[in-house]
Amino acid sequence: MLSSLRQQVQAALMEVPARRRPALRRSDAPDALLATDLPLAASEEEAAAFICGMTAQGWRVTRQGSWLLLDAEVPVPELRLPAVLRGECGCCISLLMRHQEAGEAAAYIRAVVKASEAGRQPFERLCLQLHAELAAMLRRQQPLPGALVPYLCQAYHDLYHT
């Protein structure tokens, strides 16, 4: 899910006449998908032009020290429910399907997308944490992030069926 967005940023970075190829990685910040050290590799003018270009393409770019944090809407994947719901991911999908509500999902979507790209173990750890958070939200009668279901299903499919 993150690869097409990563490719878009990578293509824009290749257009910048930097002193060296800037790094591009998953962001550790919860409010951003990707991070680049472009300000260390290019002039201020080149970095500013990159920021303007990415903003024009719908990205939100913030500067954090010598890094740029990039965030964009992750396209909603086609809903492909697994035939069998297993593990913590299955529990999360089941909870969300039974309590389809419209709680805020953007932070959860970012976390799922980044964890799924990192691999099975980070994704499973996230799902364990998510399951606990969803249960707590139900106990407090808070709306669940129902829009998260297609992203969980896609991550499950990518990690366990490819």
What does this structure look like?
It contains seven helices and four strands; from the N terminus they run αββααββαααα. With 162 residues, the chain is an alpha+beta fold. It folds into two domains: 3-71; 87-160. A four-stranded antiparallel beta sheet has the order 1-2-4-3. A hairpin with a 2-residue loop joins strand 3 and strand 4. Helix 5 (106-118) runs parallel beside helix 7. The mean pLDDT is 93.
Quick synopsis:
The chain is built from 7 helices and 4 strands; from the N terminus they run H-E-E-H-H-E-E-H-H-H-H.
By DSSP, the count of extended strands is 4
Sheet with the most strands, sense and barrel status: 4 strands, antiparallel
Query: Percent range for helical residues?
Result: 40-55%
Order of helices and strands: HEEHHEEHHHH
Strand-residue proportion: 5-15%
Helix vs. strand class: alpha+beta
Backbone CA Rg: 18 Å
Mean pLDDT figure: 93
Shape by Cα distribution: elongated
**Domain module tally:** 2
Terminal CA distance: 14 Å
Q: Looking across the biggest beta sheet, what order are the strands in?
A: 1-2-4-3
What's the multimeric state? single chain
List segments where confidence is low: pLDDT < 50 over at least 5 consecutive residues: none
Q: How many helices does DSSP assign?
A: 7
Describe the secondary structure blueprint for this structure.
Layout: H1 3-14, E1 24-26, E2 34-36, H2 38-41, H3 44-56, E3 60-64, E4 67-71, H4 87-98, H5 106-118, H6 120-139, H7 149-160
Antiparallel strand pairs: 1-2, 2-4, 3-4
Helix pairs in contact: 4-6, 4-7, 5-6, 5-7
